[in-house]
Amino acid sequence: MSPLPPLSSDPADKPSKPSRRTHRKSRTGCGVCKQRRVKCDETKPECQQCTIFGVRCDYSSPAARPKPSQTPHGPQTLSSVENADQVDDLRLLHHFVVRKHDCTAGGLDSRDPLYDHALLLAFSHSCLMHLICEFTALKLAYEQPLRREHYRALAARHSTIGLQGATDLVRQMDRHDCHAVYTTATFACTNFFARGPQTGEYLLFSERGPSQWLPLLHGVRTIIDLVGIEKIAAGPMEQPIDPTPQATEPATVTLKCARLDWVRHFERLQAFVARSAGSHSLTDVNALSKLVLVYKATYGTGDGEFQGDANQQNIFIWPYQLGQDFMVRMQDRQPVPLIIATHFALLLQNLEFKWFMRGWSDHIISSIYRSINDEHRVWLDWPVEQAHRLQEQRKAKDLEGSSQASLYQTPSTEVGDGR
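Predicted structure:
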């Protein structure tokens, strides 16, 4: 997925007319890439574009699909295809509008106002509408395994168009459309998760080069830096909202998650980081200190209590605040940054109730565990054990919930069925 580029606060850096990137045309690319009008790397049997989006790669489809002019009913066939796409898009939009709840807000059964505002903004910013459709198509692909390929293909089509438009929107942003840019960037971040864990892509670092997700998150940060958190928090309806809300209890109370006894382990971890990071000691200690604040807001202190900035209960505030030096060292697979990143990935276990977050915590932790050396792997034992414990507790809770639900189900044999 093409990352959103970092914004510049200098108006002179904004091009008056975005130029289209040129590349060598692929004559023998797969049919899916040709239909989406994106460059195919022609890797066989599955090209990289199709692998990323989880769709079936087919090199025979271009020959099997005649052009409209080659058929006796060319214009009608083309119209049918366009109408089918429009019907699919209307279904996606309808599903998004009537959803019961998003599981994107802080609570388990609440609608996120950001996602409701997105609909208002999408009618004047088509790229946002495409990203909304991508989000919904990925959700339906998750919920309907038998039609997974169909919805993943729809998501890929909308992602390509949406991200291209989002790039142009970000480059030309001003204060008047900052909410549209912020919401678009937020959807781009969320859709990255919704595509599911991908081999070689581990959120904070990647085996394919720089992380694809971090630039999206930092695009959100740049927007906030340019216009101010107060304006973003007010939303497009300009409703005054406290940008620094205070919390009176740990996030696990709201999320109904299990507690962790984390304080003693982090005391030992902080001592280890301080003495082992060498010339990067200050950078790593600072990154870990910021993560400690998130753990306090999530699980409370030793007595399980927390009172403070509610923004710290959003675990993504940690990668949001990371400096460039620390991110480069994560990408270079330096042991200490990877150990700290593993403890961040453990926090993602608390978001497993969100359909688009499932599997990401294990994906990141297992990747780091495989890549780190034996000398440093001992510091991964605690997060690995805690992740396993949280998974088992969640499975037991889900099993208990399904057993209780079965008690209230209507029996399959009703009165009079024995005739």
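Summary: The CA atoms of residues 280 and 326 lie 9 Å apart.
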